[in-house]
Amino acid sequence: MPLILDGSPSPSPSLSPSEPTFATLRRREHHESDVVIVGAGILGTSLAVTLARQNRSVILLEKSLKEPDRIVGELLQPGGVQALQKLGLRDCLKDIDAIRVKGYEVIYYGDGVKISYPLNAAGDDDDDGMGRGLDGEKEESKAHSGIKRPEGRSFHHGRFIQELRAAAMREENISLIESTVTGTVKTGYTGQVLGVEAETKDGRKDVYFGQLTVLADGYASRFRKEFLAHTPVSKSKFYGLELIDADLPQSMHGHVILGEGAPVLLYQIGTRETRALVDVPDGTPSASLANGGVKGHLRNVVLPSLPKCVQSSFERALDDGKLRSMPNSWLPPSTQQVSGMVLLGDAMNMRHPLTGGGMTVAFNDVLMLRDLLSPKKVPDLGDTARVKKQMRRFHWRRKNLTSVINILAQALYSLFAADGEFATNFISPLAR
Predict the structure, then answer these.
(1) 57-95 tens-digit pLDDT
(2) What is the DSSP string of 17-51?
(3) Which residue of 258, 297, 410, 421 pairs with 287 in a disulfide if CB–CB is 3.0 to 4.6 A?
(4) How would DSSP label each residue in 75-130?
(5) pLDDT tens digits, 205-229
């Protein structure tokens, strides 16, 4: 049997807390809903909560409900924090030992420059109404009364995901089910997607139906080839280490280290833990087997280029041997016109994670979909013509934000990963 977690409805005069609603019974017994979402990650879970709060019935499918352990998706930029607040999910940043992020320190061959986030004219997007940030800390005094700089948050990815999933489980209009989706269900005549096929860990097969199916199964999507013309392009990987008690040059800042080789990112993800991400382009000579592989590259090239205060914790983590990797991929967004289905999140659009913009894009996509697919604009999600029209609008509207993040990520990586005269002419002035 699949693990099914239904939200608990609030008590009401006409409905006891233990009495399931008609929509809940429909999801539980007939596996039918307004929306089927594949993937309980950043986008899938936040979208499920958002649609459920619009009184849509949602089936949310995830292959494993264990806390994920990833080396990316750990730094949420201020724009993402702001979007999370607008979605009513900012409490998911509490109680996970999240770290305040005020900006970046860019260090080029030992010379550093501190880059703070620009002033936020709104001034209250991170505020709880008492002059405190999301985690209850008192904000610093600012030079301009009423104006404060926005902040990001960094954290363990898995802890944040589990908080989002907990929020989904509290919604009575959501059934969160642990099951691996194996394919889509389509009509033989028109090709319209009606739902998905799935399989539990014990091998039991099942089918889930929805007026709209959302495929948000991440960077390694099994459905991308079926529905998109583009395929991801990856020319490098991030190799990740978790440093313990690292002494960073700037507290509450992300760090970009530029020196020998491609960029290195350093940022805290907990009170004692710091993430180190080392970009290793394909074919890097110093990472060849003859030179000791990637570990040889990290020890012989990367380690000496790090700030002295970080080197000992980096070396300890390297000796510990817990080195993991993640491909750095580029995938341009595409318009989608398949009836009954949309592909979202990293399954549809990716950029180099150097700038940490992925979660900001995801949460802002959900904000746009909350408006475009609202019951007022799309009363019936089975109206495929109207859904397609709104998704065309989504594709063009999201460019106002995502095109900037996508282009910036690729451009900065090209600049920071460059070497020779080009890098010297463009990066050296930053450190002066």
Answers:
(1) 999 999 999 999 999 899 999 999 999 999 999 999 999
(2) TTS--HHHHHHHHH-EEEEEEE--SHHHHHHHHHH
(3) 297
(4) EE-HHHHHHHHHTT-GGGGTTS--EEE-EEEEEETTEEEEEEPPPBSS--TT--SS
(5) 999 999 999 999 999 999 999 999 8
